[in-house]
Amino acid sequence: MRSRHIFRAFPDVEVAMMPVRNALVVGAGIGGLGAAAALGRHGVDVEVVEVRPDSRVVGVGINQPGNSLRALDVLGVLEECLAVGYPYDRNEHLDWQGRPIVVTPCSLGTDRVPPNNALARADLHRILLGAARRAGARIVHGVSVAELVDDGDGVSVTFTDGRAARFDVVVGFDGIRSPLRRRLFGDAYEPEYTGFAVWRVTLPRPAEVTHTMLFHGDRSNTGVIPLSREEMYLLHVTAEPEDARYEPADFRELLRRRLAGYGGLVAELREDLPLEGIVYSPLSEVHLPAPWHVGRVIVLGDAAHASAPNLTQGAAMALEDAVVLADELARDRPVEDSLAAVSAARFGRTKLVQDVSHGILVTEMSITADGLEEFAMNLREHLPGQAAFIEAELNKPFRLERSADVVAP
Ligand SMILES: Cc1cc2nc3c(=O)[nH]c(=O)nc-3n(C[C@H](O)[C@H](O)[C@H](O)COP(=O)(O)OP(=O)(O)OC[C@H]3O[C@@H](n4cnc5c(N)ncnc54)[C@H](O)[C@@H]3O)c2cc1C
């Protein structure tokens, strides 16, 4: 029999004793910090190792759709995210001259969470770091896994700083190029380049940018997303060679040239691009078949299912993974069975997100200037129904039935 106890850090939270006492999380990105917070809130002693030397994050803004906000709510940080972000409830599609095509209201969310809340990546990172630390996790920067031996009863880990420790479970949220995935599954599931890349930059928010606006152009796509009352971010997706290596000093000019055919708002923004702060990201995907674990070690988030960003669901999937992982590990059964349950629960949902995101990316990038009118007609006819379908799926609960002896925070 397991005994109930009151977890000291959260006196109002009653949790069951977990079969897992301690966990190593590899990677202090969005999913890793989310997992540290979720596991810590269940009473697990968590160490997080992050290869980067400090907690600074590169990046621009990030949209958190309603399902992600539900996961952030479980981690106790919904209000913090809403306080710094920009909630919005619709997506507007226009052509590259700024002529309106269609507006789709967004039906994600609940009474408690808005359909979307976009915020600066640095803010999301700071908030998740706080949640992980408050849940008792230790976060060590500049360190990674040097060696790892799973003997069935636990995992012995040697770190790159020479320390050694033993864990009940090891969780890899080490991103799209995951070394842990390679260690578990070899090189069969390396990232696959989509053929497209995105340029992004934070800019002052014009008053009209109160929701996502997507401008469809000639084999390219430009978007603006509000991040706060003061800021928004601009994104521009284009076909780029896989081996493109552009100099950051040239980013402004390269982006200006790519935006050359656009009129309206995008043309105005093109004239005010800053010299610094432009980020270039090739878009790749990871397709790791389930199960995502070997023994007591599992990979999750981008390491297992990195997706094109068109649905703004990658971080959402990583945060949902984190919550489901903690739920499953709280069950009174062998760790390996719980890890198998995680990928079984998550595979279909993450695959749906990958497939839909990929489909949107490829379709949008195939539109030429000549085909824009036909594309606009199709979008008007089909998009509202397609968006409603995927949002209904994403609105479904992502947590499984809780076992009777685990009380949710
Ligand atoms: C252009 C673009 C736009 C996007 N926009 C959105 C959006 O609007 N909304 C959304 O929900 N998602 C978005 N995403 C996706 C989202 O950023 C990712 O899905 C999310 O960050 C995945 O979280 P993760 O924790 O799995 O990986 P990451 O956040 O990448 O974290 C991985 C961490 O592991 C660390 N690491 C790597 N190797 C090691 C190692 N050996 N040892 C220790 N640590 C290691 C890395 O330094 C990093 O900190 C976007 C992605 C792209 C490319």
TrEMBL record:
Keywords: Monooxygenase, Oxidoreductase. The keyword rRNA processing does not apply. SUPFAM superfamilies: FAD/NAD(P)-binding domain. Residues 23-330 form the FAD-binding domain. GO terms for molecular function: FAD binding; monooxygenase activity. Pfam families: FAD_binding_3 (PF01494). The keyword Oxidoreductase applies. InterPro entries: FAD-bd, FAD-dep_Monooxygenase_BioMet, FAD/NAD-bd_sf. PANTHER family: MONOOXYGENASE, PUTATIVE (AFU_ORTHOLOGUE AFUA_6G14510)-RELATED. This is NAD(P)-binding protein. It comes from Georgenia thermotolerans. The lineage of its organism: Bacteria, Bacillati, Actinomycetota, Actinomycetes, Micrococcales.
